[in-house]
Design brief:
- A five-stranded antiparallel sheet has the order 1-2-3-5-4, with helices on one face.
- By secondary structure, it is α+β, with helices and mostly antiparallel strands.
- The longest helix is centred in the first third of the chain and has 20 residues, at about 30-45.
- A hairpin with a 2-residue loop joins strand 2 (about 50-60) and strand 3.
- It contains four helices and five strands; from the N terminus they run E-H-H-E-E-H-H-E-E.
- It starts with a strand and ends with a strand.
């Protein structure tokens, strides 16, 4: 598990996820997808959730490898998940592609949020064949 409390932690998460994609044997395209999604999700936890954690799990199913990222924060939660997943929606100074973009980059994407109690995103990418 990796803590996300500082800007430096965001870089640590990127490096850890990149190393995990290499160990899983992901193609360069899949490596880029997963690292980009992890970066966006960790940054959201840091900026909007006041910090959080990132857990990386290696998966195997029917001979295919995968990585599951679980990003959790104890922030204010997301009041309107549908809007938050829409490109262009932002509550800050960003472009508003973070959550929706991360969802598109991963194979599976689950978002659990309770206003006032935080957000958890579970995103999985299976290696392309």
């Amino acid at each position: 598990m990796h803590q996300v409390r500082t800007e430096e932690d965001l870089l640590t998460v990127r490096h850890a996820v990149r190393a995990a994609t290499l160990r899983a044997g992901f193609s360069i395209v899949d490596q880029t997808r997963v690292v980009t999604a992890a970066s966006e999700l960790a940054r959201n936890a840091y900026i909007h959730g006041g910090g959080g954690t990132v857990t990386i799990d290696h998966l195997m199913s029917r001979g295919t490898t995968g990585l599951r990222l679980t990003i959790t924060d104890d922030g204010p939660g997301i009041a309107d998940v549908g809007a938050a997943l829409t490109d262009g929606f932002t509550t800050g100074a960003g472009l508003g592609h973070g959550l929706g973009g991360a969802r598109r980059l991963m194979t599976d994407f689950e978002l659990q949020t309770v206003p006032g109690r935080g957000t958890t995103v579970i995103a999985t990418r299976w290696a392309s064949r």
